[in-house]
Amino acid sequence: MKDNSINEEIELQRPLDKGLLKALQQQPMDPLVHNFSFRTMQRIKKEERQRAHRTKVTEIVLMAFVSFLGIAFIVVMAGNSLKEIGKSLSNLQLFESLSAHPLVTVTLICCLVFLGGMNFFLENVFRKR
Amino acid sequence: MDVDEKHLIQRILGGKTDEYSYFLDRYGREVYAVAVRLLGHAQDAEEVTQDAFVSAFQHLDDYRPELPFATWVCRMAYNRAISVLRKKKRLPKSSNLPEDQLASVTDEMVASAFSDTSDERIQMLEQAVEQLPADDQTLISLFYHHGKPLKEIAYILGLDANAQRSVAMLATRISRIRKKLYVIIKQMEERYER
Predict the structure, then answer these.
(1) How far apart are CA B58 and CA B43, in angstroms?
(2) Each residue's pLDDT expressed in tens, for chain A with a length of 129 residues
(3) Which CATH number does the domain B99-193 belong to among 1.10.10, 1.25.40, 1.20.120, 3.30.1450?
């Protein structure tokens, strides 16, 4: 209650202290440089460019890392099958070979979908920032 | 407000960076005035103002439109200015007016002295304001010159703007500063009379 009354008192007094207001308005003050907006915008744009560059580099590193992981996963899980596919391909029997190894085919498709999804997700995240 | 600032902020967040210059043109001087009052040095104040606007741009998605944009940036500038003062070991010192001198001053005496708009009184008030510590100058400048509500001033100074106690504390502080100014003016008058 007491708190409210002092707030109200001081608020009521504000428009009546015309002399003090005028004194504060008239006090000499160093002016803001005329090109302040321009200089600040330049700085903001420069920092934006640097941030965009950092984001791009991070994106590339992440993509490379995820791709490496995907490839490593395929090699570990289906290395032997891949060798066989390689042999089959050299005999130009690609489709027969893939149908003969459904596990490899499904793993490959899953990896491609995962990488595509990851790419889409990361692009969205970094674009928002 | 001539421009729909909420809409403008959405456009800036959507990639129209150039449109941020609207906020710099509109509120640059106001934020600078707070910084220069506290720092008392134009170059430092300009740097602090620029830092505050750059930081505001980087955190634009955190901005809540319930608060005026200038007040939001003023708080950033105020915090930065305090950091600069702390680094330079120039934190504002409280004035050393004796407590009994202030106690003898009534609100009526202050009110009648401050409503006077004669050139002589204004000149005295200008000089008296200069004798106040920088944080007191900043506070009365925010209250009178910028016409900010007490809640917004509390926010700028980093107090809990929603707490009634913080706002009341500010009101009490402004009341004390008015009394200090009155005492300074009276001392000046006495000196002139001698």
Answers:
(1) 23
(2) 556 788 888 888 888 899 999 999 998 888 899 999 999 999 999 999 999 999 999 999 999 999 999 989 888 888 888 888 777 777 655 566 666 677 877 888 899 999 999 998 888 877 765
(3) 1.10.10
CATH number corresponding to B5-87: 1.10.1740.10
Closest by Cβ to B141, choosing from A6, A19, A24: A24
Query: Quick check: A27 and B140 CB within 8 A?
Result: no
Mutate to test the interface with B, among A8, A32, A41 (most CBs of B within 10 A): A32
- Give a yes or no: residue A7 inside a domain: no
Two structure tokens written together for A40? 């600040």
Residue A83 lies in a domain: yes
B111 vs B179: CA distance, rounded Å: 10
Given the cut 0.90, state whether the ipTM is greater than it.
no
Question: How many domains does one find in chain A?
Answer: 1
Sequence-ordered list of residues with C-beta below 8 angstroms from that of B146, at least 6 positions apart, any chain:
B30, B33, B34
To the nearest whole Å, the CA of A89 is away from the closest chain B CA by: 49
Specify the pTM.
Answer: 0.76
Q: Which residues of A touch B113 (CB under 8 A)?
A: 19
3-state secondary structure of A49: helix
Structural domain harbouring A95: 50-129
